[in-house]
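Incident log entry.

Two folding requests arrived from the same account within the same minute. Monitoring flagged them as a possible duplicate submission, but the sequences differ. Recording both here for audit purposes.

Request one:
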Amino acid sequence: MKLSVYTREFKENIKLAYPIILGMLGHTLVGIVDNVMVGRLGAAELAAASLANSFVFVGMSLGIGFSTAITPLVAEADGENSLVKGRSVFHHGLVLCTILGFSLFGLIYLAKPLIYFMGQPREVVDLAKPFLDLVAFSLVPLIIFQGYKQFADGKSETKYAMWANLLCNVVHLFLNIVLIYGVWIFPKMGMLGAAVGTVISRIVMVVYMHFALKSKAKFQPYFEGFSLKAIGKAMSVKIINLGLPSAMQMFFEVALFTGAIWLCGTIGKTSQAANQIALSLATFTFMFVSGLSVAGMVRIGNQKGMGDFIKLRIVARSIFLLAIIVQGSFALMFVLLHTVLPHFFINSDNLKVLQENSEVVKIASNLILIAAVFQLSDGIQVVVLGALRGLQDVKIPMYITFAAYWIIGFPISIYLGLFTSLKAVGVWIGLLSGLTAAAVFLYIRFNNLSKKLIIHNL
């Protein structure tokens, strides 16, 4: 097919994706703002925030990954014009997300003693523990919010989550400023102030999302008839069967990067801080293709509901092409600015930690170069995963991601990071290897599956 067949879809893709991207950037900016502000307190504080967030990111990945099951089911119901089916998915999904949010908080709280057995510096561990308690609790409102968000996304209404995240970030930034540094009547809480700001801002976010959706005529029929007694086994099992493999897919990737944090922590404080800088930047750019992934999931879910598999394949490929363009642009930016970007995360005026910070900048600059290389691999694997979720194909991709990240990627990270002179750079070469393997095998899976669907429906 001509390239124009795919580029014609760009406008619709971007229209659907940009509010999702801005909303996802909102999630990421909460962590980045914490890292920037906490990083100015010192390398130990930045490393502690990184360590605590590594636990929370694992829980967040499971919660967000599980909630993605709601979107293709709602999109399919929308394609079928079925209000009853869409409402059932929404109600069941919201209840399951609420249960999951509290469960993940409880698991992280109970797992907190593991922090002592990870070979991290004692100073970092002592700072991380109280920070972890608060940020872990913020998972409860965050995952409840995801229930609302994924429902709205499935209805192709992506702006509500964008505005909710914008509000969250404004509240979070204000609370960080006044609570970390003790401005006006507020106490000076240091890095704990960032954690308190995260909890409060995420509660504000979910409250806003609830009332924003409920107040709109389009969504009011979906809020009717809600009752815990109406929550049944059939729909719950359907969501769980889609949500659990999707959660594991996201968990495998986030756990890979979490493993990189722990590996860099065993190498040293400066390597861990540098890893967090590079990871923050890579996570920021990842949100753009994650938004495209959700847009693809919605559009492909719609086409599946309508039974148009030729159009489905065109839409998917247009998303893949757009992801390559976006990530290629970020790769170029990383190469050009790899020595400049780390300075935004440290306090260069603090003479007491000048030598330490110089080492952080040097390591982070090299990691950013590797991050530039894996922009394409990371972008392709996430948009193809979105396409497969739109087809409600989640089990085989779960196995593919496990093999790519944990049989290929992480062993390379361990060997090069701990047993060669590459250290943190070696850890990131392992990340690149895992992401590239995932991109290749997931694309093969989608290509074969979409061809079969076309042939079977001729």
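Request two (distinct sequence, not a duplicate):
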Amino acid sequence: MKIVVTGTRGIPNVMGGVETHCEELFPRIAALGEDVTVIRRASYVLPNNPPMGDGGMREWKGVKLVDITAPKLKLFEAFVHTYRAINEARRIGADVVHIHAIGPALLVPYARLMGMKVVFTHHGKDYDRDKWNKAVKVILKLGERLGCKFANEVIVISDDIRNLIARKYRRTEHVHLIYNGVTSPEMCDYPEYFEELGIEKGKYILGMCRFVPEKNLHHLVEAYTSLIRNEELGMRNCKLVLAGDTDFEDEYSRGLKEMARKNGVVLTGFIKGRKLHSLLTNCCCYCLPSSHEGLPIALLEAMSYKVPVVVSDITANLEVGLPKEDYFPCGNVEALAEKLKEVVSKPLQKVDYDMGKYDWDKIAKQVDEVYQSLI
């Protein structure tokens, strides 16, 4: 079966939840014997992964790679790239087009008109993101509607999204709950990197995500700063490390970085591999204060390293099923500070979470079963 994937910026080593999802999922789908092509946005695969035609990769872990240009203008970029990707999918004779996220889902009817079967994965209510204005939110809601109405099969990553689709669009058939996954942790140390960052094992709080408003990293910086300012127990010896960056440098990301630097927060930029694994292995806790998520892969990854977590009480985070004491009211900086103080004041500990339903190998088989149902 020939499967073409679009809606992702690209793989491998491209920042973003959908990108991590596709990077883990589609090599496993290819290993099951399917012919998989991921169509990447050329501007996101430089310089680490040069696009095809420039001496770059044409295949990665059994997945074919095709690079198509699109103007780098937020939502407009996704629309243009998906349109071009669907045309490419038809040209190469795709049996199934798998479209990820509600923005690209605007083109689901077009893919159907081109005669291809369409699987649509709903990763979350992107119109709830703070960065979008009213006009864009209307367009994203339309994308959600078109994806849910016209895709042959819909995959959702949480019960919350499944319930949303049933309530808003009366769609209960051909909807599949398949969670995000997480790989086995790679526990490691990286003393040289820690020395470069100026941090010590077990003496830092880790925030790991994109620098966008709905992640509320400014709340994390505010909470940390208040503890330092008030000389709370142990906090002066505890650093805050923010691992991540943004796709589009804007007023928020610039302001967050400036705020972080002024308050002694360590900024790593976008990292993967040993650097990230060492930070996850040795942090005293991981914090995700976001106001919007689908099913946060970054949180699942932190849990796989058995570190204590402090997360906002939004529906997507609650669905993970953490102990009550791991949550704080979303947007409440004072409550977040108290949670951080509690965790930091305790001896370092490892937490055994139940990660059984987040196994990428099982998830790949579930997705492949969706493809097979279309034949």
